[in-house]
Amino acid sequence: MAAYHQRMDSSPSDRGVLRPELLPEFSRLPATGSAADLVRWFWISRWDLPLGRQSTQDVIAFGALNLVVQHDETVISGATTRISHRTLIGTGWAVGALLQPAASVGLPVQPLDLVDRVESVDGAEWSGLHSAVSDEMSRRPPDLAAATAAISAWLIDRVTPTDEALLVNRAVTSMETDPSLVRVDQTARRFNVSERTLQRLTSKYVGVSPASLIRRRRLQEAAHRVRTRPDASLAQIAADLGYTDHAHMTRDFASVLGFSPSAYRSDS
């Protein structure tokens, strides 16, 4: 199977992916209708690697839960505080839903307990979900839209978002997409809640703090610019993204990723 990248929405589908050129077949589809309150977007990966070959990807994951139906199991992964790694071998597929905070109330996990963890799930209802997605992925060619629709229907049947949950959706989306939000108090004021309330809500629905979400967005964007803008100086990238200085950005890279911006640029 030839490796390629297929972009299916307006945002960069490789944001947070440190080495997208190593991705196998990868697609992203938007969540639509009432599913959009529960899923930010769907991602689909398929791979068929020669015997003895493997593909390892490093990711600065979004601050969110992922519900992932794979060819061999269904898992829920939590928000992360460090770089994530996944190694692919053989032949397989995965259909993932990057979940909105509101979806967490319908899952048998507490987001705070799942930080930096991946948990397999089983039982009759999970088996039904896996079968529904597998049926669509087994078609030739696979019906990606139908596979994601099966996950949408499963979630919609189990989760009715509350006003509080929808507020957290909006706040988290703003922190992860709006570069003007660089402090927690700015987000709290925008949504007319106290900083303490915002801290409580993101911990409840996502598992990490508002400050962590803001830092993660900035680090994702910094990595994307370091890789895709070779003519921009690291000092300029740091300044554009609100870091105190180049050294501040370098410390952020080192603490989360384990390497410096200059080393990442040299290796990209």
UniProtKB/TrEMBL annotation:
InterPro entries: AraC_XylS_family_regulators, DUF6597, Homeodomain-like_sf, HTH_AraC. Residues 169-267 form the HTH araC/xylS-type domain. Pfam families: DUF6597, HTH_18. SMART domains: HTH_ARAC. Keywords: DNA-binding, Transcription, Transcription regulation. GO terms for molecular function: DNA-binding transcription factor activity; sequence-specific DNA binding. This is AraC family transcriptional regulator.
